Amino acid sequence: MDMEAGKTLTNEEVIRELLDLLKKNAMKEQANDVFEICSYVDGLEKKIDSMTEELTNMQNQIKEMQEDTLVNNAKKALSEAQERLNTRCEQIKSQVLEVKEHVRSTAKGIVEEAKEKGRAALYRVSEFLGIKKRLLDIRENVRDVRLKIETVKDADEKEWIGVFTSSEEMHKGSAGNVQMNQSIESILRLALKWEQVNGIVINPFGKYIQMTKKMIELLINGYEHYENERKSKDDENN
Predict the structure, then answer these.
(1) What predicted TM-score, i.e. pTM, was given to this entire model?
(2) Over the stretch 133-180, which tens digit does the pLDDT of each residue have?
(3) pLDDT tens digits along 34-59
(4) Alpha carbon 27 to chain centroid distance?
(5) 3-class SS string, the chain
Protein backbone atom coordinates (compact mmCIF):
# COMPACT_ATOMS: atom_id res chain seq x y z
CA MET A 1 0.00 0.00 0.00
CA ASP A 2 1.23 3.49 -0.79
CA MET A 3 -1.58 5.63 0.61
CA GLU A 4 -0.23 7.32 3.75
CA ALA A 5 1.87 4.18 4.37
CA GLY A 6 -1.34 2.15 4.63
CA LYS A 7 -2.54 3.90 7.82
CA THR A 8 -6.27 3.39 8.24
CA LEU A 9 -8.54 6.29 9.12
CA THR A 10 -10.44 4.28 11.72
CA ASN A 11 -7.21 3.81 13.71
CA GLU A 12 -6.18 7.46 13.72
CA GLU A 13 -6.03 9.05 17.17
CA VAL A 14 -8.21 12.06 16.34
CA ILE A 15 -10.97 9.81 14.95
CA ARG A 16 -10.92 7.60 18.02
CA GLU A 17 -11.02 10.66 20.24
CA LEU A 18 -14.07 12.03 18.38
CA LEU A 19 -15.87 8.68 18.60
CA ASP A 20 -15.21 8.48 22.35
CA LEU A 21 -16.59 12.02 22.87
CA LEU A 22 -19.74 11.23 20.91
CA LYS A 23 -20.38 8.01 22.84
CA LYS A 24 -19.77 9.68 26.21
CA ASN A 25 -22.31 12.35 25.28
CA ALA A 26 -25.06 9.87 24.35
CA MET A 27 -24.57 10.42 20.60
CA LYS A 28 -24.09 6.80 19.66
CA GLU A 29 -25.94 7.11 16.34
CA GLN A 30 -23.69 9.97 15.23
CA ALA A 31 -20.64 7.99 16.36
CA ASN A 32 -21.78 5.06 14.21
CA ASP A 33 -22.21 7.38 11.20
CA VAL A 34 -18.69 8.78 11.60
CA PHE A 35 -17.21 5.30 12.01
CA GLU A 36 -19.10 4.09 8.92
CA ILE A 37 -17.69 6.95 6.83
CA CYS A 38 -14.14 6.32 8.05
CA SER A 39 -14.48 2.59 7.38
CA TYR A 40 -15.74 3.36 3.89
CA VAL A 41 -12.67 5.53 3.18
CA ASP A 42 -10.43 2.69 4.40
CA GLY A 43 -12.29 0.25 2.15
CA LEU A 44 -11.90 2.52 -0.89
CA GLU A 45 -8.16 2.82 -0.24
CA LYS A 46 -7.82 -0.96 -0.09
CA LYS A 47 -9.87 -1.37 -3.27
CA ILE A 48 -7.79 1.19 -5.16
CA ASP A 49 -4.53 -0.41 -4.01
CA SER A 50 -5.83 -3.74 -5.34
CA MET A 51 -6.82 -2.21 -8.69
CA THR A 52 -3.45 -0.45 -8.99
CA GLU A 53 -1.66 -3.77 -8.44
CA GLU A 54 -3.87 -5.49 -11.01
CA LEU A 55 -3.20 -2.77 -13.61
CA THR A 56 0.55 -2.96 -12.94
CA ASN A 57 0.48 -6.74 -13.45
CA MET A 58 -1.49 -6.25 -16.65
CA GLN A 59 1.13 -3.78 -17.93
CA ASN A 60 3.97 -6.17 -17.10
CA GLN A 61 2.23 -9.09 -18.79
CA ILE A 62 1.61 -7.09 -21.97
CA LYS A 63 5.28 -6.06 -22.09
CA GLU A 64 6.42 -9.67 -21.72
CA MET A 65 4.31 -11.00 -24.59
CA GLN A 66 6.41 -12.15 -27.52
CA GLU A 67 6.26 -10.03 -30.67
CA ASP A 68 3.88 -11.54 -33.18
CA THR A 69 2.18 -9.87 -36.15
CA LEU A 70 -1.12 -11.53 -35.26
CA VAL A 71 -1.35 -10.11 -31.76
CA ASN A 72 0.39 -6.73 -32.11
CA ASN A 73 -2.84 -4.78 -32.68
CA ALA A 74 -4.48 -6.51 -29.73
CA LYS A 75 -1.44 -5.78 -27.55
CA LYS A 76 -1.61 -2.12 -28.54
CA ALA A 77 -5.34 -1.93 -27.74
CA LEU A 78 -4.87 -3.62 -24.37
CA SER A 79 -1.93 -1.39 -23.53
CA GLU A 80 -3.91 1.75 -24.35
CA ALA A 81 -6.83 0.47 -22.26
CA GLN A 82 -4.47 -0.23 -19.36
CA GLU A 83 -3.02 3.27 -19.56
CA ARG A 84 -6.47 4.90 -19.57
CA LEU A 85 -7.62 2.81 -16.61
CA ASN A 86 -4.42 3.55 -14.72
CA THR A 87 -4.84 7.30 -15.25
CA ARG A 88 -8.42 7.05 -13.99
CA CYS A 89 -7.28 5.04 -10.98
CA GLU A 90 -4.69 7.71 -10.08
CA GLN A 91 -7.37 10.41 -10.30
CA ILE A 92 -9.65 8.48 -7.94
CA LYS A 93 -6.76 7.82 -5.55
CA SER A 94 -6.17 11.57 -5.36
CA GLN A 95 -9.88 12.15 -4.64
CA VAL A 96 -9.87 9.59 -1.82
CA LEU A 97 -6.78 11.15 -0.22
CA GLU A 98 -8.51 14.54 -0.41
CA VAL A 99 -11.60 13.15 1.34
CA LYS A 100 -9.43 11.42 3.92
CA GLU A 101 -7.75 14.72 4.80
CA HIS A 102 -11.17 16.42 4.95
CA VAL A 103 -12.42 13.78 7.41
CA ARG A 104 -9.29 14.16 9.52
CA SER A 105 -9.40 17.97 9.64
CA THR A 106 -13.16 18.02 10.37
CA ALA A 107 -12.73 15.56 13.23
CA LYS A 108 -9.81 17.55 14.63
CA GLY A 109 -11.80 20.79 14.50
CA ILE A 110 -14.79 19.25 16.28
CA VAL A 111 -12.64 17.68 19.02
CA GLU A 112 -10.77 20.93 19.69
CA GLU A 113 -14.00 22.96 19.79
CA ALA A 114 -15.68 20.40 22.06
CA LYS A 115 -12.86 20.75 24.58
CA GLU A 116 -13.52 24.50 24.72
CA LYS A 117 -17.30 24.73 24.36
CA GLY A 118 -18.54 21.33 25.43
CA ARG A 119 -21.29 19.10 24.01
CA ALA A 120 -22.80 21.72 21.70
CA ALA A 121 -19.73 21.57 19.44
CA LEU A 122 -20.35 17.87 18.79
CA TYR A 123 -23.41 18.68 16.69
CA ARG A 124 -20.94 19.74 14.01
CA VAL A 125 -20.77 16.04 13.11
CA SER A 126 -23.58 16.89 10.67
CA GLU A 127 -20.76 18.18 8.46
CA PHE A 128 -19.90 14.54 7.78
CA LEU A 129 -23.09 14.19 5.71
CA GLY A 130 -21.48 16.20 2.91
CA ILE A 131 -18.43 13.96 3.09
CA LYS A 132 -20.63 10.87 2.80
CA LYS A 133 -22.19 12.22 -0.41
CA ARG A 134 -18.71 12.78 -1.86
CA LEU A 135 -17.78 9.19 -1.02
CA LEU A 136 -20.84 7.86 -2.84
CA ASP A 137 -19.79 9.82 -5.94
CA ILE A 138 -16.29 8.35 -5.71
CA ARG A 139 -17.76 4.85 -5.41
CA GLU A 140 -19.43 5.31 -8.79
CA ASN A 141 -16.08 6.37 -10.26
CA VAL A 142 -14.37 3.28 -8.80
CA ARG A 143 -16.82 1.06 -10.68
CA ASP A 144 -15.52 2.58 -13.92
CA VAL A 145 -11.93 1.45 -13.34
CA ARG A 146 -12.42 -2.05 -14.69
CA LEU A 147 -12.93 -3.44 -18.16
CA LYS A 148 -16.64 -4.04 -18.79
CA ILE A 149 -18.14 -6.77 -20.95
CA GLU A 150 -21.39 -7.76 -22.60
CA THR A 151 -22.18 -9.92 -25.63
CA VAL A 152 -22.63 -8.24 -29.03
CA LYS A 153 -23.38 -9.45 -32.56
CA ASP A 154 -21.70 -8.41 -35.79
CA ALA A 155 -23.34 -7.84 -39.20
CA ASP A 156 -23.24 -11.59 -39.89
CA GLU A 157 -25.06 -12.32 -36.60
CA LYS A 158 -21.89 -13.87 -35.13
CA GLU A 159 -21.63 -13.39 -31.40
CA TRP A 160 -18.62 -11.79 -29.69
CA ILE A 161 -17.72 -10.68 -26.19
CA GLY A 162 -17.73 -6.90 -26.28
CA VAL A 163 -15.02 -5.39 -24.04
CA PHE A 164 -15.37 -1.74 -23.07
CA THR A 165 -12.51 0.32 -21.69
CA SER A 166 -14.87 2.87 -20.08
CA SER A 167 -18.53 3.58 -19.41
CA GLU A 168 -18.31 6.24 -22.14
CA GLU A 169 -17.42 3.58 -24.71
CA MET A 170 -20.25 1.37 -23.50
CA HIS A 171 -22.79 4.19 -23.80
CA LYS A 172 -21.99 4.68 -27.49
CA GLY A 173 -24.31 1.76 -28.19
CA SER A 174 -26.51 -0.70 -26.35
CA ALA A 175 -26.61 -4.45 -26.73
CA GLY A 176 -29.14 -4.77 -23.90
CA ASN A 177 -27.26 -7.55 -22.10
CA VAL A 178 -25.99 -7.94 -18.55
CA GLN A 179 -22.87 -5.86 -17.91
CA MET A 180 -20.01 -7.14 -15.74
CA ASN A 181 -16.71 -5.67 -14.55
CA GLN A 182 -13.82 -8.06 -15.17
CA SER A 183 -10.03 -8.24 -15.19
CA ILE A 184 -8.40 -8.70 -18.60
CA GLU A 185 -7.15 -12.22 -17.89
CA SER A 186 -10.58 -13.43 -16.77
CA ILE A 187 -12.14 -12.00 -19.95
CA LEU A 188 -9.61 -13.76 -22.18
CA ARG A 189 -10.16 -17.11 -20.47
CA LEU A 190 -13.93 -16.65 -20.54
CA ALA A 191 -13.83 -16.08 -24.30
CA LEU A 192 -11.96 -19.35 -24.88
CA LYS A 193 -14.39 -21.36 -22.78
CA TRP A 194 -17.52 -19.74 -24.22
CA GLU A 195 -18.33 -21.96 -27.21
CA GLN A 196 -20.94 -19.74 -28.88
CA VAL A 197 -18.73 -16.64 -29.15
CA ASN A 198 -16.11 -16.10 -31.85
CA GLY A 199 -13.77 -14.08 -29.66
CA ILE A 200 -13.48 -10.56 -28.25
CA VAL A 201 -14.12 -7.14 -29.77
CA ILE A 202 -12.71 -4.16 -27.88
CA ASN A 203 -14.95 -1.05 -27.88
CA PRO A 204 -17.37 -2.43 -30.52
CA PHE A 205 -19.38 0.78 -30.81
CA GLY A 206 -16.34 2.95 -31.58
CA LYS A 207 -12.92 2.35 -33.15
CA TYR A 208 -12.87 -1.36 -32.43
CA ILE A 209 -10.30 -4.16 -32.41
CA GLN A 210 -11.38 -7.79 -32.95
CA MET A 211 -9.52 -10.69 -31.34
CA THR A 212 -10.23 -14.20 -32.56
CA LYS A 213 -9.81 -17.19 -30.28
CA LYS A 214 -6.50 -17.97 -31.98
CA MET A 215 -5.22 -14.53 -31.03
CA ILE A 216 -6.54 -14.97 -27.50
CA GLU A 217 -4.68 -18.28 -27.14
CA LEU A 218 -1.44 -16.51 -28.05
CA LEU A 219 -2.14 -13.77 -25.52
CA ILE A 220 -2.86 -16.27 -22.75
CA ASN A 221 0.33 -18.14 -23.61
CA GLY A 222 2.11 -14.83 -23.13
CA TYR A 223 0.45 -14.38 -19.73
CA GLU A 224 1.42 -17.88 -18.63
CA HIS A 225 4.98 -17.48 -19.90
CA TYR A 226 5.34 -14.28 -17.88
CA GLU A 227 3.85 -15.85 -14.75
CA ASN A 228 6.10 -18.92 -14.97
CA GLU A 229 9.20 -16.74 -15.34
CA ARG A 230 8.12 -14.54 -12.44
CA LYS A 231 7.53 -17.54 -10.17
CA SER A 232 10.91 -19.02 -11.14
CA LYS A 233 12.65 -15.76 -10.22
CA ASP A 234 10.77 -15.63 -6.91
CA ASP A 235 11.81 -19.21 -6.12
CA GLU A 236 15.44 -18.39 -6.90
CA ASN A 237 15.33 -15.33 -4.63
CA ASN A 238 13.85 -17.41 -1.81
Answers:
(1) 0.64
(2) 888 888 877 766 666 677 788 888 888 888 877 777 777 775 555 455
(3) 999 999 999 988 888 887 887 777 67
(4) 34
(5) CCCHHHCCHHHCHHHHHHHHHHHHCCCHHHHHHHHHHHHHHHHHHHHHHHHHHHHHHHHHHHHHCCCCCCCHHHHHHHHHHHHHHHHHHHHHHHHHHHHHHHHHHHHHHHHHHHHHHCHHHHHHHHHHHHHHHHHHHHHHHHCCCCEEEEEEECCCCCEEEEEECCHHHHCCCCCCCCCEEECHHHHHHHHHHCCCCCEEEECCCCCCEEEEHHHHHHHHHHHHHHHHHHHHHHHHHC
